[in-house]
Design a protein that fits this description.
Length: about 375
């Protein structure tokens, strides 16, 4: 039985090392004696794929990501908060331990912004200043987005997703809600749509949009962290669940959580009067136990949500209202944007499908195509 295995991973440049010279040839181009030997002494072309991969040695384990073996001296815990080089892990006794992360976990997670996320179950070796995460258990769910070409996992191991928007200040963004719905559907996470700040407008103004989502089977909750309207419904949805709370900056995510669980005392800030954009008060995702037999995951506000590893052809399948219609298109690979005999376009023309939802699907599919080029 092998005690270790090797793996080829993408090479990432060591930014802390001294940069190598790339213009050696130009430095000696006027030196005749040296230039005669340059062709035989200096490499004139790159190594190709050899420079893009490197080999790392890993313990032989099944599932998860292992950094140095999870032996008898390791203990199991859940990541409450990961930021920078440190992660805060809660053990079985409820104690919170500040942990480092084994370097090999960074090595194998070259496509990720950070190897661990709030909600991850991990194995830790040592205590105190010596505590280090050595193993990450397989995730049963993960909500991820693309960040500078790499995977940014916002939360892991959650049951449902509260997609929070605001009726005003800032204005509601249905397109952002659609993006998050696609991400939730792709990850197998149950979405719940929450529209906060309904005290700022007449609730009847939201009924057409809320009705579109409700007809697809999504729970839609109109609420207000100021008046308390809708909080009783939110408490029912929270019971016994691990719930991630996502939305753009300024929609009142932290304010809602403070009303649902006052002991949290999360910091909040007002929306900018100049551009009606929210200010970041939550800087990293945090797992927060609540009194409804579950946990919140409070996440930083987002102004855009780029889908991660989404294939354009799979985008329509994440739209519940388009999914049954797509089976009746003339072409099996119909993009629902320009083809003749498209059942989706016919439904839009007949008023059976919301035009904005169809446009949103085409826009997201085009964006997914651009990100793959």
């Amino acid at each position: 039985m092998k005690n270790s295995r090797t793996s080829r991973v993408a090479f990432r440049k060591n930014r802390h090392a001294r940069r190598r010279q790339t213009d050696v040839t130009r430095q000696f181009e006027n030196d005749g004696d040296v230039s005669e030997n340059l062709a035989s002494t200096e490499r004139l072309s790159g190594k190709g794929d050899l420079t893009r991969k490197r080999t790392v040695k890993l313990p032989a384990v099944e599932g998860g990501v292992n950094g140095s073996g999870s032996g008898n001296d390791a203990w199991r815990g859940q990541v409450l908060h990961a930021h920078g080089l440190d992660s805060f892990v809660r053990d079985e006794f409820g104690q919170i331990v500040r942990c480092a992360i084994r370097q090999v976990l960074h090595d194998v997670a070259t496509d990720q912004r950070h190897p661990v996320s709030a909600g991850d179950w991990v194995h830790v070796q040592g205590r105190g200043e010596e505590a280090a995460i050595c193993f990450i258990e397989p995730r049963r769910s993960a909500l991820s987005r693309s960040s500078r070409g790499r995977r940014h996992t916002l939360v892991a191991n959650v049951d449902q997703l509260f997609i929070v928007g605001s009726a005003a200040q800032p204005d509601l963004k249905p397109g952002l809600i659609d993006r998050m719905l696609v991400a939730a559907e792709s990850a197998g996470i149950r979405p719940v749509i929450c529209i906060n700040k309904i005290d700022l407008i007449a609730p009847a103004e939201l009924l057409p949009l809320a009705g579109v989502y409700a007809r697809m089977g999504y729970p839609v909750i109109l609420c207000s962290s100021v008046t308390g309207y809708g909080l009783s419904r939110l408490k029912i949805e929270l019971d016994g669940q691990v719930t991630a709370v996502v939305g753009q900056s300024g929609v009142g995510k932290s304010s809602l959580l403070n009303r649902l669980e006052p002991v949290l005392e999360l910091p909040v800030s007002d929306v900018s009067r100049d551009n009606e954009k929210g200010r970041h008060t939550t800087t990293a995702a945090r797992l927060l136990p609540h009194s409804y037999n579950g946990s919140f995951v409070d996440t930083p506000g987002v102004r855009q949500f780029q889908l991660w590893e989404t294939v354009p052809a799979e985008v329509p399948s994440a739209f519940r209202d388009l999914r049954p219609l797509a089976n009746h298109c003339r072409y099996p690979d119909c993009s629902h944007s320009h083809e003749s005999g498209c059942a989706v376009k016919d439904a839009v023309a007949d008023g059976l499908l919301d035009t904005r939802r169809w446009e949103s699907c085409c826009y997201l599919a085009a964006g997914a195509e651009d990100s793959r080029e």
